[in-house]
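Bug #77: duplicate submission created two jobs. Keeping one. Sequence:
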Amino acid sequence: MIVLNDSTALNLINLAQKGDCRAREKLIKLYKPFIQKTSFNVCRRYLSWENDDELSIALIAFNEAISSYNHVKGASFFTFAYGLISQRLIDYFRSEVKHKHRPLSSFNAGEEMELSLVECAQAWENYRLQIEREELVQTILELDQRLSEYGTSLDELADICPKHRDAREKLVRVAKVLCSNVKLLHTLRKNKRLPAKELARVAKVSKRVLENGRKYIIALVVIMSEERFSVLKDFTGLGEQRKRGCCHAGQSHSG
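Kept job's structure:
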């Protein structure tokens, strides 16, 4: 997928909102893979443009996102579009569930009872998953808006996330140290930047490590220290590292 930088994408969105059809078509063409990937994340199965209505719905939702996006509200366009596509697909699933019931008169009593129980169980499971998806999408949107206060975004984090496991674990440890230090955490929230000098001393890392991983550390701290984002710990892999990360932090302080 060809990815436009933020300013170019915003320029195309502004042109599209002013009626430039070519700008709108260019955005849709370039980001069809994004639309397909987002749909896959919601539906959890492979989708093809030729055979699946879900992609048509997602495409319409993406087009709607172009028309209604407002960068002043804080969230990046692609986070906004992700949320809108997810919501439209969930609405579609609800509509499908309502219109796919066979008439009860077509079953005998035993089959009717068995199918009713199965359908009820499946409908409840589908509803539970839909609610979880809605809540996750909303939480992701809130996180993106929160990160904008620190001069970063979820889109940017995807690019700056350390590729090597050791580097990621080191930054996770630093974030845990910061979260456990009330004074440093207060300074970060007040000034909206890392207290690099003091954090380097306490976490026993170089300032260069902090500078290179600054935005990643901030994102980790926001997720770990704010209760409303706790659901994202497992989603971002922090849940799996929690126990191991604490042990590493303890070893670092004792060394």
